[in-house]
Amino acid sequence: MAYLGNRNATGENNSFRILDDLAFTTTFNGSDGNIVNHVADTITINNHRFLTGSRVTYTNGGGGNITGLTTGTVYFTIKIDHNTIKLATNASNANSGTAINITGTGTGTSHTLSVALDGVNTKFVATHGSGTKAMMTRAAQLFLSHNGVIQRPHDSTTPSNGYGIDPPNSTIIFASAPASTDVIFGNLVANNFPTFDISDNKVDTFTADGSTTTFTLSRAVVNNDNILVALDGVIQYPSDSQNTRSYTVSGTGSNSLTFASAPANGTIVHVRHIGFAGASTSGVTGFLGRSGNIEITDTDPIVGIQSGGVAIGTVRTLNFIGTGNTVQVSGNTIDISIAGGGGGAGAFTTAITGIQTTSQTVGIGTTSVDDADLQGIGNSARGLYVSNGMILYDNAINGSHYIGTSMNGLMAGPVRVDGVLSVDGNFVVV
Question: For the chain, give me the number of helices (H) and strands (E)?
Answer without folding.
Answer: 1, 42
